[in-house]
Specification:
2 copies of one chain form a homodimer.
Chain A (H helix, E strand, L loop, with lengths): L2 E2 L2 H21 L5 E7 L3 H17 L2 E7 L5 H13 L5 E4 L9 H7 L11 H8 L9 H12 L8 E5 L6 H10 L3 E5 L6 H6 L3 E4 L17 E4 L3 E2 L5 E2 L4 H4 L5 E2 L7 H19 L2
Parallel strand pairs in A: 1-11, 2-3, 2-4, 5-6, 5-7, 7-8, 8-11
Antiparallel strand pairs in A: 9-10
Chain lengths: 283, 283
Amino acid sequence: MSEILYGKNVALNLKEDMKKNIENLKKKNIIPKVAIIRIGEKSDDIAYEKSIIKNCTNLGVNTETYKLEKSVSQNEMLNLIDKLNKDTEVNGILVFRPFPKHLDQELINSSISAKKDIDCMNPLNLEKIFEGKLDGFMPCTAEAVVEMLKYYNINLEGSNVVIINRSMVVGKPLSMMLLSHNATVTICHSKTKKLSSITKNADIVVTAVGKAKMIDEEYFSKDSVVIDVSINVDDNGKLCGDIDYDSVYGKVKAITPVPRGVGSVTTTLLIKNIVDGCIKQNI
Amino acid sequence: MSEILYGKNVALNLKEDMKKNIENLKKKNIIPKVAIIRIGEKSDDIAYEKSIIKNCTNLGVNTETYKLEKSVSQNEMLNLIDKLNKDTEVNGILVFRPFPKHLDQELINSSISAKKDIDCMNPLNLEKIFEGKLDGFMPCTAEAVVEMLKYYNINLEGSNVVIINRSMVVGKPLSMMLLSHNATVTICHSKTKKLSSITKNADIVVTAVGKAKMIDEEYFSKDSVVIDVSINVDDNGKLCGDIDYDSVYGKVKAITPVPRGVGSVTTTLLIKNIVDGCIKQNI
């Protein structure tokens, strides 16, 4: 038997706190609001946008969407962000990534007010995480992993955690966050040799590779806790993670399913960031 | 036999390039200059200052020192840094750390122009390292480790590197720099369990613990490359590293001595940062 770490329970728990915060804001006639900036008409972006708006509406968070042409100019982007930075009714700004290549991503990231940067794109917010200061905005996927581990009482202090990902949205911030929780952290990637012998010795393995079912039972021990961040599509068109779930389930201590795992927590944390931002901006 | 990795050779090699750059600047009537800000009269600081001035003078880099009272106010500090930021003759600003507690370290770090931030205190420069962008200023000790490994042709790609330190001047920036060189990186610290079994499996071990001779041969294999960053004082008042050198020498592939190891490279890199900053500011 492996414990199945569903994301839903974690998300519900987070939402309970959030609802109280939203109610308290309402008493002061404040309703949190997020501004979403979408460039172009990518189906992934549209689906993500819909899911955010639905979740926000259910919780009582206002949304406004800015749909920009793919040809939007650098100045138009910067002017819009500047307007939203100054708008006291907007508490969070979310810009879908990646941007079209003619836009300067670095410049745009820095232009988002650090106080409204709910998706943690501003380098000042990222640097805080590098320093281990976890009281600001964090990339939601990395934060979701930590929330999952905390919710299921999985010990971090002194644990060996292996992360297979070195991106700025998952692996790198997550490694710093786990260090702050006193875990010993190993960061692996495509150039890592003998990956399975490294993961086999870990207490916790977090994967965000993006290859359907590439990781099987050979990578784990019976004491492994396995957190699968990826959402891939398998040969039959079904959603799956990096882990070959059917091969691994039953042979490890605990495992997240895909779907219904980490992904369920990520959007909730994005909304939590809007609400937390709203509270800080209205103290 | 273990190969002894002396810092001197690495420093000399770096100085060769630096001398050429300084000569080229001289042809344009430009002499690189660093402003050193020292608060109070700590003997460590005074020794470090002397060593920097001596090294700068030998290479033809100008220095100017600002000696401030321990009671210096926040505003005096910020005004001085602002003046130096604007002074086109000053190419690098070095403020000795740590500061007296009444000063806001974060605010002062951010106030140093990112272009003159030769000791990598500004969060914008640190965040670049977090992202793996290694074309800017880097903390000199972390950079010295990378330069040592590169000079002695120690392969990084796919190698397992264990770092025993998680500070913002060594462990964290070094881990990001090594990731950019495609190493697999493990970050250990005081809460790490079974440290010796982790280091024993590594290709390269970097220690910056600050405890004289705490690490003996049990931590390594015959193929280990051992980089000792610490400079401690042993029971007999002699300088030594974290490694019990006499126990380990001969039983590993390569090892840095203390003194005459990494420390010899660090100051050289600080001066290199002044010169590189000067070049960029005068393009």
